[in-house]
Amino acid sequence: MAQQKNLEGYVGFASLPNQVYRKSVKRGFEFTLMVVGESGLGKSTLINSLFLTDLYSAEHPGPSHRVKKTVQVEQTKVLVKEGGVQLLLTVVDTPGFGDAVDNSNCWQPVIDHIDSKFEDYLNAESRVNRRQMPDSRVHCCLYFIAPSGHGLKPLDIEFMKRLHEKVNIIPLIAKADTLTPEECQQFKKQIMREIQEHKIKIYEFPDTDDDEEEKLVKKIKDCLPLAVVGSNTIIEANGKRVRGRQYPWGVAEVENSDHCDFTILRNMLIRTHMQDLKDVTNNVHYENYRSRKLAAVTCNGVDNNRTKGQLTKLDTVEGMSPLAQMEEERREHVAKMKKMEMEMEQVFEMKVKEKVQKLRDSEAELQRRHEQMKKNLEAQHKELEEKRRQFEEDRAHWEAQQRLVEQQKLDASRTLEKNKKKGKIF
Amino acid sequence: MAATDVDVFSNEEKRNLNLGGHVGFDSLPDQLVSKSVTQGFCFNILCVGETGIGKSTLMNTLFNTMFENEEASHYQNGVYLRPRTYDLQESNVHLKLTIVDTVGFGDQINKEDSYKPIVDYIDTQFENYLQEELKIKRSLYNYHDTRIHICLYFIAPTGHSLKSLDLVTMKKLDSKVNIIPIIAKADTISKSELHKFKIKIMSELVSNGVQIYQFPTDDEAVSEINSSMNAHLPFAVVGSVEEVKVGNKMVRARQYPWGVVQVENESHCDFVKLREMLIRVNMEDLREQTHARHYELYRRCKLEEMGFKDTDPDSQPFSLQETYEAKRKEFLSDLQRKEEEMRQMFVNKVKETEAELKEKERELHDKFEQLKRMHQDEKKKIEEKRRDLEEEMNAFNRRKVAAETLSLSQPLKKDKDKKN
């Protein structure tokens, strides 16, 4: 289809990436990050550490101040600028998650939130008049695991199982400064084992052709889930000013890769894979939502006749747009109607033929009977005629005879008379 | 696709925050760029112009390569479009380039419908994209985009004005595709004639309301160069794949007895400007405009045609689901109605025919009755005659008997007479 052509000189489309760069900077970027975990695991602190700012202002109630017992979903939007690049960052918080005594369905508000964002995007995408579509879909979910050291809690497993096909999940071990490196390793292995056991699909790093990048990705994969420590305070340590947590026995530095995986998380989440998180959300999670939603719409009111033993039909249903599918249905229906019409026509013709034939037969029968009767009558008539003729002949004959006899008698009597007269004279 | 551009930051309640250090999201544009480089780019050019005006040569010159082309004849029955796709690579950038040629344009005697195949082709590409976008299971991110990003309209170098075919065609295309008009074979026009020609062309375009592509001036990085280029439209170009030695270099040029026209010399022609604008500065913008403006317009018209609306009669916005469901309901009830109609028609037909047949049956019956009556009458008559005959025969028999008894008594009288 496409031919490979070699260029014999500089054309200039190698500047395309620059053009794309320029336009993207002008447009600005958006990113929605969700944090999920029980209260007190240091979620807000971690966000602040990640973005080097006080995202959650002083008025933001800490865990001890929260009154509500049900899971809330709260959005915080901030606009940050760096190096000429604007980023609209939305952080979605889930206070109350896992805090109740009975935590069944505490994931439901989270699922609902994610779905409603997908729904909004789907509706915006499907409008006739499409304006700019702000992307408020959740691009990444940081799931905080409590540093028990023993493994995942049932709630952790339930949550991740229900959300792994809706959002990119990055599991984190929170407050990792309570685990020693060995404990941490054990814990990580345990968690990854359990994740695999339950077939939970956490965010997968894409393969790259670049060797350097491949090495980096492998390093990250080996450290999953990332054990993080966050801090809002800057401390003097080893002559440097670092973010860290001051203990009597030392300072746990947030950005020290020997102390925790914070830098790995930050680099991966912000500096290298932010775009990919958005892409996977758009190309995989959103498309899944959309195709499920649209399939549900088009399967409403599908004729039972149609699905009779036609499993292959479902494949074509999925491959088409609902509109194309309606077109297809329309065409099918037209064909069906034509066939029906033909059949009805046939039946009709046949019945008419039958009736007409019957009628003809009747007519023929009647005609035949009429002929027969006529013949019969004629025969009778003839017979009668014959009889009459015969009779008249006989009668005429007899009458003739009688007249003869009468004549004879008359002659005889006349002769006698004559003789009588003659006899008397003597 | 990801969110389209324009200011997404306007209607949000958000706070501006200052960062306490280097976070690192300034690498986002690089991440985006690296992703698009991996994906590869695609660009589709449509060349509209008369046969022999230099479309293929210009493409070869622009892209520094020999695209295969057979020379087209002037005897085509109509206009048809010939797309060809090529894979090009420059440093690490892969470009899937599709060049669509209009073969036979301007050759027919009656050119009224010449624009139609072009418009149809453009619409078909939009339609294909729309269909993909509407599918239930779709894969837009690796869809080969065939929508035309730029239409280079080749104007013949008459030196006077646009031909009416040009105006008609461009008018039909301007709402569907980005148009850059270029004056072809500009080496046949002198500088002063060229200046007048350009002014004439632009004023004709304006007075006829033809919207050509304006190089964008909203981005400070390129606004200056773009606005200066806008003033040079239409570009007067010369194309050549042959090289001529000028000075001590081999340059692409056309050799005439009176001199050498150098393609890449800006005082000789606007080729460099065209290349700069089309490829090096605004390629991405052309793609964006095609997607965000022309395609959206097509989509909107198509959906409205199909009866989709954004709001119901009460001005409540429809959700996608509602829209589809409503459409589907309408559609199903329509089908049902058609079925009913057909059935009804048949029922009527049957009734009619039945009535006809019944009528015939009745007639037959009547006829039969009539015949029957005739027979009865006949029979009666015969019966009467028979009776008459019987009576006569009886009467005759009586006579006969009477006569015989009479004749029996007669001979006695005779004997008596004889004795005397």
Give a verbal description of the structure.
The complex is a heterodimer of chains A (426) and B (420). Chain A is an alpha/beta fold. Chain A has 11 helices and 10 strands. Chain A has a domain at 25-54 and 70-296: P-loop containing nucleotide triphosphate hydrolases (Rossmann fold). Chain B is α/β, with parallel strands linked by helices. Chain B has helices at residues 28-39, 55-62, 115-134, 164-173, 191-207, 220-230, 271-281, 283-305, 320-409, 411-419; strands at 15-17, 41-48, 80-90, 93-103, 150-155, 179-183, 235-236, 243-246, 249-256, 259-262. Chain B has a 6-stranded mixed β-sheet with strand order 3-4-2-5-6-7, with helices on both faces. Chain B has a 3-stranded antiparallel β-sheet with strand order 8-9-10, with no helix packed on it. In chain B, β3 (80-90) and β4 (93-103) form a beta hairpin. The radius of gyration of chain B is 48 Å and the shape is elongated. β1 (2-4) of chain A pairs parallel with β3 (80-90) of chain B. Chain A: Keywords: Cell cycle, Cell division, Cell projection, Centromere, Chromosome, Cilium, Coiled coil, Cytoplasm, Cytoskeleton, GTP-binding, Kinetochore, Mitosis, Nucleotide-binding. Chain A: One of its GO terms (molecular function) is GTP binding. Chain A: This is Septin. Chain A: Belongs to the TRAFAC class TrmE-Era-EngA-EngB-Septin-like GTPase superfamily. Septin GTPase family.
Brief account:
By secondary structure, chain A is an alpha/beta fold.
Essential attributes:
heterodimer, A: 426 residues, alpha/beta, Rossmann fold, six-stranded mixed β-sheet, three-stranded antiparallel β-sheet, 10 strands, rod-shaped, B: 420 residues, 2 domains, 10 helices, 50% helix, elongated, disordered N terminus, Septin (chain B), GTP binding (chain B)
